[in-house]
Write a structure and sequence with these properties.
This protein has 9 helices and 16 strands. The chain is α/β, with parallel strands linked by helices and 290 residues long.
Length: 290
């Protein structure tokens, strides 16, 4: 099976306490490598510059990408992490992504900062049978200091199969940062609405909310965990056609990544560990009707 992932590769400078780490990242890398763990072929639709240090790394991991090289340098963030909270600054922005028709079983759209235009997004939606949206990059703006903040943004969510939002993103999209946001997003046409609030993960499907809780353990590097979650959900959904298992595998992947205590791409979990966690979450899942 094949998944197409639309997002910029990035170079992240991550600060945790007194330690600094420069890593390649972006949803393209985290999500793409996670999908490979699920034995998917991965087609990246991305852009990076001549300063991107790990083009060969993607090739070695058998991740496909075409027309990705830009004359502009790679999108770059500085990220300061304190516990589960992080602040981002945009250091550089690469060229936007150019859409070409792709034959894939599923699409993941996860921009990191405005690399996907509204027109491109509409073309992707038109061609997809299954589309998972992480809207963060559509909502992000920068202030005079290049610090990232989120802004209210109206989006057409027709033909979106699944979406993942946190309270801040939900507030910007539908005016609510509570669990009520799930119903508001569902009314916009999304079939599977996922709401993540730190360790609490909920999903609305039809008239039921399903919930799992990630164990509350000490968190190290949270960068890319959301991208790992999205890829794990999408791959499981496409293979198993079961949204409950998809939620559990996504939570299992995120939990394993957080428990690894690794930084950057080193935290991408192995399939066996994800499966163990998924079974744990499946047995403890809660649900309620709305």
């Amino acid at each position: 099976m094949k998944i197409a992932l639309f997002s910029h590769c990035a170079i992240d400078t991550i600060t945790i306490g007194d330690s600094n780490y420069e890593q390649i990242g972006g949803a393209a890398c985290y999500g793409g490598l996670t999908a490979k763990k699920f034995k998917f072929d991965v087609e990246l639709v991305t852009k990076f510059g001549p300063d991107f240090p790990h083009k060969q790394y993607l090739t070695d991991n058998k991740i496909n990408f075409e027309n990705a090289l830009s004359k502009k340098n790679t999108t770059k963030f500085s990220i300061n992490i304190v516990g589960s909270d992080r602040t981002l600054c945009l250091e550089n922005q690469c060229d936007p992504i150019e859409y070409t028709k792709i034959n894939a079983d599923g699409f993941i759209v996860s921009p990191i900062f405005h690399e996907i235009s509204s027109d491109t997004f509409e073309k992707i939606k038109h061609d997809s049978n299954f589309l998972f949206l992480d809207p963060q990059g559509f909502l992000r703006r920068t202030n005079s200091k290049k610090e990232i903040f989120l802004e209210n943004t109206d989006m057409d969510l027709s033909n979106v199969s699944a979406i993942k939002v946190n309270p801040e993103e939900a507030q910007c999209m539908v005016g609510s940062s509570s669990i009520d946001a799930l119903s508001l997003l569902q009314k916009k046409g999304v079939e599977h609405v996922i709401f993540t609030n730190k360790t609490e993960v909920s999903m609305l499907v039809k008239d039921r909310v399903y919930s799992i809780t990630l164990p509350n353990k000490k968190i190290h590097d949270t960068t890319g965990v959301g991208d790992i979650f999205c890829a794990a959900f999408s791959c499981t959904m496409l293979k198993e056609k079961d949204y409950l298992w998809a939620l559990c595998f996504a939570g299992g992947a995120a939990q394993e990544a957080l428990e690894s205590k690794d930084v950057g791409l080193l935290k991408i979990p192995k399939k066996g560990a994800i499966e163990t966690n998924a079974s744990y979450f499946y047995n403890l899942m809660k649900y309620r009707s709305i």
